[in-house]
Write a structure and sequence with these properties.
This protein is of the alpha+beta class. It has two domains: 3-172, 2-Layer Sandwich (HIT family, subunit A), CATH 3.30.428; 176-327, HIT family, subunit A (2-Layer Sandwich), CATH 3.30.428.10. The chain has six helices and 14 strands. The protein has helices spanning 120-137, 175-191, 195-206, 247-268, 305-310, 319-327; strands at 3-6, 13-16, 53-55, 69-73, 88-90, 93-97, 101-106, 145-152, 164-170, 210-213, 217-220, 231-235, 273-278, 293-298. Strand 1 and strand 2 (13-16) form a beta hairpin. The longest helix has 22 residues, at 247-268. The chain is globular and about 50 Å long.
Length: 331
Amino acid sequence: MPELRKDPVIGRWVIISTERAKRPHYEHGKTPPRSGPCPFCEGNESQTPPEISAYRPGGSQRDGPGWTLRVVPNKFPALMIEGNLDRRGEGVYDLMNGVGAHEVIIETPKHEVNAGNLSDKQFEELLWAYRDRILDLREDKRFRYVLIFKNQGADAGATMEHTHSQLIALPIVPRNVTDELVGAGEYFKYKERCIFCDIVRQEIEERVRIVAENDSFVVICPFAPRFPFETWILPKKHSSYFEHATKLEYVDLARALRETLIRLNRTLNDPPLNYLIHSMPFQEMDNGHFHWHIEMMPKLTQVAGFEWGTGFYINPMPPELAAQSLREIVP
């Protein structure tokens, strides 16, 4: 059973999970070579754990071919779905059982397709799959947060080249999300407005760091990015929960996400990158101060000693120039 251990100095939680050591390993910058058929490809469904859900337009048989998107448990999970949390202390240390969910969303049955080559319709399916899994997992009262994320490329943490994304359901709220909640809450107390809504309004007005926009979303390079070409997608209309988006908003988000990936891939020659969705935690009171969003971070620089020692980031690319470069790409 994995464990969640809390750092007694700064309150950061760490997952100790020996299962993760069994994953395929790769040399720096190289995707691991396939030693056999890809388990994510259509026809190889028996090589994954039994599917949790799938989109099967023709009504094909479960755990068989005929799907367009498939959700399965991670074969090497960071957290285990079975068991109780068993919160406990050992002297000054706090820990609990590593209970959670770790799932893989296989975005296409075709091995050669890059995420940027998926159609708007396929991205819509992907977003609905994210939503469905969040709504299902939030019914489990052990969980307080679900993080949706994608790793593209070996240097971004992908150990399988077949395009996919993942989710992890957690019994605690991640530190990064907590920091955003606290910062947004302090701004709301002072100004009685959502900081993210103010960012959206200012960026649309100034149009210096905007990459693209449609009826429902704006794509920006944030004012203080940690990484070169860091890009955010934010709803124009205030909303705290990703899973509460409307059908029309998912249509617009699918287009915005697909086009942003294309812009980043073409500008940076298919870089390793991560994207993640920050949404409101399940059990937090929604007082209107938090605004869900997607963060996309190409991995172009290395986090080194200065960053680890200070928490500062050194970014050689001003977001104004990054946004200009991305705007010039026609998806």
